[in-house]
Specification:
Layout: E1 9-10, H1 15-22, H2 29-45, H3 49-57, H4 63-83, E2 89-90, H5 91-114
Parallel strand pairs: 1-2
Helix pairs in contact: 2-5, 4-5
Pfam family, one: VanZ
Keywords: Membrane, Transmembrane, Transmembrane helix
Domain VanZ-like: 8-108
Length: 124
């Protein structure tokens, strides 16, 4: 698959990752860093998305709604790359963006559930 062909679609999940690991010993350091940046960058990009969405909408969202918005936004970004010939629409980018968004939705709400503090009514 030609990586420089804009306006194309890659529907094979993690195809580039598979090719990278097949040729890992032949890759130089810059290529390895580029792969890691792209892989983890897609996850990190959507990590704060659900919290930012709640701030913008000014309301608390259920986990299902967060999942829906994360998926629709990720899909829309990838589809617009295909539609406007700005990049390659890749299914693994959708999967990684969705994974990062879900991970962020869970971890950014986790401290509220784990650390429940009681008010102290007696003065010291």
């Amino acid at each position: 698959m030609n990586e420089n062909f804009y306006g194309s679609i890659n529907i094979i999940p993690f195809y580039k990752s598979y090719i990278f690991f097949l040729n890992c010993e032949n890759s130089n350091f810059c290529h390895k860093i580029s792969f890691l940046r792209e892989f983890f960058g897609n996850i990190i990009l959507f990590f704060p998305f659900s919290k930012a969405l709640e701030i913008v909408l000014q309301k608390k969202l259920t986990f299902k709604k967060k999942c829906f918005y994360i998926f629709i936004t990720s899909f829309s970004i990838e589809f617009s790359q295909y539609l406007f010939n700005l990049g390659i629409m890749e299914v693994d980018d959708i999967i990684l963006n969705f994974s990062g968004g879900i991970l962020g939705a869970y971890l950014l709400n986790c401290p509220k559930k784990v650390f429940k503090f009681k008010k102290c009514t007696k003065p010291y």
